[in-house]
Automatic annotation (TrEMBL), chain A:
It comes from Paracoccus denitrificans (strain Pd 1222). The chain crosses the membrane at residues 12-33, 63-90, 102-124, 130-148, 188-213, 233-252. Keywords: Cell inner membrane, Cell membrane, Membrane, Plasmid, Transmembrane, Transmembrane helix, Transport. One of its GO terms (cellular component) is plasma membrane. It is found in: Cell inner membrane; Cell membrane. This is Binding-protein-dependent transport systems inner membrane component. The keyword Isomerase does not apply. SUPFAM superfamilies: MetI-like. The lineage of its organism: Bacteria, Pseudomonadati, Pseudomonadota, Alphaproteobacteria, Rhodobacterales.
Automatic annotation (TrEMBL), chain B:
It comes from the Bacteria. This is Binding-protein-dependent transport systems inner membrane component. GO terms for biological process: transmembrane transport. It is found in: Cell membrane. It comes from Paracoccus denitrificans (strain Pd 1222). Its main location: membrane. One of its GO terms (cellular component) is plasma membrane.
Automatic annotation (TrEMBL), chain C:
The keyword Cell division does not apply. Gene3D superfamilies: 2.40.50.100, P-loop containing nucleotide triphosphate hydrolases. Belongs to the ABC transporter superfamily. It comes from Paracoccus denitrificans (strain Pd 1222). SMART domains: AAA. InterPro entries: AAA+_ATPase, ABC_transporter-like_ATP-bd, ABC_transporter-like_CS, ABC_transpr_MalK/UgpC-like, Mo/tungstate-bd_C_term_dom, P-loop_NTPase, Transp-assoc_OB_typ2. One of its GO terms (molecular function) is ATP hydrolysis activity. Keywords: ATP-binding, Cell membrane, Membrane, Nucleotide-binding, Plasmid, Translocase, Transport. This is ABC transporter related protein. The lineage of its organism: Bacteria, Pseudomonadati, Pseudomonadota, Alphaproteobacteria, Rhodobacterales.
Amino acid sequence: MSDMKPTLPISIVALLVVAFLQVPVLVVVLTSFSETSYLTIPPQGWTLKWFAEVLSDPVYLRAIWNSVILAVSSTLLSLVLGVAAAYALFRKAIPGSEAITALLMAPLIVPSVVIGVAMLQYVTLVGLRGSFLVLIVAHVVITVPYILRSALASLSGLDVSVEEAARVLGADGFTAFRLVTLPLIKPGLVAGALFAFVTSMENVPVTIFLASARQTTLPILIFSSVEMGVNPGVAAISTLLIIATVIVLLLAERWAGFHKFV
Amino acid sequence: MIGQRSAWLLIAPLLLVLLLSFVVPLVLLLPTSFQEYQPGQGMVAGSFTWENYLRIATDGYYREVVLRTLGLGLGVTVLCLLTGYPVAYLIVRGHPRWRLPLTLLVIFPLMLNLVVRSFGWIVLLTNRGVVNNLLLDLGLIERPLKLMFNMTGLLIGLTHIYLPFMVLMLVAALQNVPRDVEAAAATLGSSRTHVFWSVTLPLTAPGIIGGSILVFVLTISALVTPRMLGGPTYQVMATLIYDEYMQLLDWPSGSALSFALAASTLVIIWISSRMTRRWAGMA
Amino acid sequence: MSNLSLRNIVKRYGKTEVVRNASFQIAEGEFVSLLGPSGCGKTTILRMVAGLLEPTEGQIMIGEREVTRLPPNKRNIGLVFQSYALFPHMTVFENVAFGLRRKGESGKPLEERVNAALEMVRLGGYGARFPRQLSGGQQQRVSMARAIAPRPSILLFDEPLSNLDAKLRDEMQIELKRLQQELRITTLFVTHDQAEALSLSDRVGVMHGGVIQQLDRPEEIYHRPANAFVASFIGKPNRLQGRIEAGTVALGAGLALRPERLDLPEGSAAEVFLRQEAIRVLRAPEPGALAGTVALRAFSGPQVQLVVRLAHGAEIVVEVPSAEDTASLAPGEAVYLAIRPRDIIVLPQGAAS
């Protein structure tokens, strides 16, 4: 009897599609090592000069630094605010918790560019334009839904009586959360934090309206520089990002079984 | 196990952040969209007009951009569905040993910086890019094909960007199909193809709808990829908003367009959630 | 160790009263069960004692201390959950040590007490394992060790055996009884399994609709149910309608039962409860025995169940050990049912059920 396994043609199509997903990545990596400023197949000559160029360029270094600081601080802030909120929502101790959840998840639904222009007008109005703190808060708004989603999902997979057991055994509310609940939802939180970090790291539509020239982030820099055409320096910096992504993804998979949380 | 007071204390900080830096900015944007704009002078204080909204429907250029955006959304959704289903099927029903590597290969592009992915497509699709060079070298074409700054480029690029979402939604849907039901159909004399069309596909409908809505909404809101692959001339709604704010400084038009875009995504999501609820009620 | 008393406890959700005015006391070292169908309020009472729920009205005292509004961590209670609720990310040792550590215990004394608790549930040497590496029965024993290790003044059990399969449940029941005898901790045990409640407890409280219907020794509950609910809930009773006539319960068609005690007025309507296991099946008539015919026979291994149709039309289910001669009775044959007067339970008709 047929057990509905994929047939050979379907498998081949599927593998081609998966390969298609990797093509731009491969092309970028090859370009970054190629002598010529445009890529040919096969590439002509190998070099590391684009890496050297980019990594000695203060504009790029500054953008990398800005991006990392922004992503780390907004992820941490989202994590603290989001986990606290998720815990309260999960316990359903508050009336209207569903409406509140919907509100907190709304930044996922409203187009980022709309959030960007709304915040641009707002910070201009209150006179905070150019403040790095504004940028961090803006990134909290767009990253917190990911934390909230994974925290709520992890909490709902938890046996409530485990935390109750800790309480009965003499732990106060915070101790029970710290010793029992938190370790049990940690894999989900790692995944959520990773999503938040990646979202912050790649954001253009909100950042571009709020960041001053000195606050330019890496994605903004790449986004703006390609208007001048293909630049191997961009390929080099992209390759660095690709390598970082691969490492982080593999680590997350090993620590937390990341693919289960996507 | 926490009282209402401590629950409010836990949730208040985030709620405050969201109210002050998300809700209030959006609400304050609304009056802007009803203000008159005088080129060179900016917004006319105290004015009220429907013009900014009317223009979206009546002005030929705006209408073209809106229709292009919706067409793009539809095209990308269909392409993602057609290419994504086989991948999801292979992941769920293929050899278990392939499941993890395939899943990671689907997630990997998703985790990769959006700007980098779009840049990769520029390298591939530009006039002297990889694709054109390859085709020229092989003698298949005589002049470079125009693959960027048009619908082709945007369709390819955005399909690539949003395909992982579709695959993940379909994987979840396929995993929920009870194998017994398929087996039952097979014992009742259905062929493989018939089992697929009459059982598997309808049972994955929620995933197909969910994935399609997600991809459609993401596509019509996208700014980065359309701008990088479409340039400043081939506009969609999001890039037009961007230009109206950053280049033309016509904030009233930009904000009206913003609300039009946000409203369409909200309406689509609302309709789809009602639809899936009705479907769930039937099951 | 101390006694536990509940005074006029009420729990309301909106307008629904889940527990209505429950008052009882458990003496030091006593083992009391709350028995009832799901939704009867027994778990609600247990959770209020544990501090996981707050009563709407009333008082809970542990010894001389009022704990009604105290958080669970300040009550010094041991609780064994239906789902075990072990900490999956901690070893067995750390699970058992959890409560002791909260009391500031550490080092050698901690280790000794954890190991003693594990020995007591016969899991010595399992300390380094994780819960997921243990069977369901072992997990439940870890959960008991964890509850008793900090020497709680009250021990609570929330349907602790219902997640185990039948065979394991019997073993664990014996284990539990042994443990309770050794420790003599004041215990409140919640279950829907009457065999469990009757065999383990000093006293059993049968609950229904948020009300404790009867709280008494297991023998009293079984032989002298206070009302129709308790009579029909305990054992496998047959229920017959009758009328009090001349010191007997007349069932109709000349059939009558003569109970040991009869407190109902002459002529009043009555309900009779006859336990399946208390009915003797005879082939030949005997004074006082009810005449009938076998309508159905079902063999279930150690027992044969017979459905007997009485002369006035009502049907009674009886159990006969397979080894008995009467077990071979076939449908259509005549039988006589003898019931000892003390096993005839008579209650007024239409009382709370």
